[in-house]
Amino acid sequence: MNEMKEKVLEGLLLDEGCELSLAELSRACSMHAEWLLELVEEGILEPRGRGPLEWRFEAPALQRARMVRNLQRDLGVNLAGAALVVELMDEIDRLRARLRRLEPGC
Fold first, then answer.
1. Which single residue of 31, 66, 80, 95 has CA 20 to 30 Å from 38?
2. Does some domain include residue 5?
3. Is residue 10 part of a domain?
4. Nearest alpha carbon to residue 68 among 54, 49, 87, 55
5. What's the alpha-carbon Rg for the chain, to the nearest Å?
6. How many structural domains comprise the chain?
7. For residues 37 and 101, what is the distance between their CA atoms, to the nearest angstrom?
8. Which residue range forms the structural domain that includes residue 53?
9. Residues 36-93: tens digit of each pLDDT
């Protein structure tokens, strides 16, 4: 008998104004909170709040954390390398936004 396995896709839809606690971010990106602490120490994530129990991360932090997770898992990039990649991606986004402002027809 040939059985087809169904894949269940799971997602989290966040609006730009959404904020996540450290525990929520940890669950959303399927990584330990200690790993997220390392991302904060490396400057990849910038939480608001006095300490880990009070930290709040804006919605884009989830995308950044997942990008770093994928860089480490798929390419073996260390945190310093991942921080550089994230910084370069941010710069590309800024340059693209500037280009769109300068060339409104594009």
1. 95
2. no
3. no
4. 87
5. 17
6. 1
7. 36
8. 19-102
9. 999 999 999 999 999 999 999 999 999 999 999 999 999 999 999 999 999 999 999 9
